[in-house]
Amino acid sequence: MKIAIIYHSFTGNVHQLARAGADHAEALGHDVAVHRLCEIDELDRATEIHKVALADLADADIVLWGTPGRYGSMSAPMKYFIDQTLDLHMAGQLANKFMTTFVSTATNHGGQESTVLSLNNVFYHWGAVIVPAGVTRPEQLTPLNQNPYGISSVSGRQPDNVPEENRVAMRYLVDRIVSIAGGTR
Predict the structure, then answer these.
(1) How many domains does one find in the chain?
(2) What is the CATH number of the domain that holds 63?
(3) Which of 28, 78, 82, 97 is the most buried (most CB within 10 A)?
(4) Where is the Flavodoxin-like domain (predicted)?
């Protein structure tokens, strides 16, 4: 299957989650395209990155979206990228794709669930098939992974502070979405 991972990472935590998901999907034999979105003050670089990411988004069967939480919502670079998807949406190219979300916030109860839900609101408009993490396996019952909506990490405001527990949860999320998407094709 073709999998796109599109994410924004400020401190490196969402990047680590994206890498864990990408590495696992590649190990399973899937074609994976990974795109890290630019900071707003680097938008002069964004045009080419976004052009390729939009093409991979249109081509993907599965999309994993990653963002740091910003006051209970997605980050500005993620929102800026999503605002560029209107042509794909209007052409029906985002409908029926399988999508899921992973996030990182600085504190526990830092808006992880509402950040995932802010992305889900976009997916509803697109007609995407949202695959939540759920609480379906032990990986989602650990103290650091009790968000049924998506995978969430608490960075503690420390860069590159993603525990192995969260990496395991990302591998579980990849397994789950691939299994669901593969079962419907």
Answers:
(1) 1
(2) 3.40.50.360
(3) 78
(4) 3-178
Closest CA to 67 of 133, 120, 129, 142: 120
Spatial separation of the C-alpha atoms in residues 151 and 132, rounded to whole Å: 9
**In angstroms, rounded to a whole number, what is the distance separating the alpha carbons of residues 68 and 71?**
10
DSSP string, the chain: -EEEEEE--SSSHHHHHHHHHHHHHHHTT-EEEEEEPPPGGGHHHHHHHHHHHHHHHHH-SEEEEEEE-BTTB--HHHHHHHGGGHHHHHTTTTTT-EEEEEEEESSTTSSHHHHHHHHHHHHHHHT-EE----S-SGGGSSTT---SSSEEEE-TT-TT---HHHHHHHHHHHHHHHHHHHHH-
Structural domain boundaries, residue 179: 2-184
Per-residue pLDDT tens digits for 83-123: 999 999 999 999 999 999 999 998 888 889 999 999 999 99
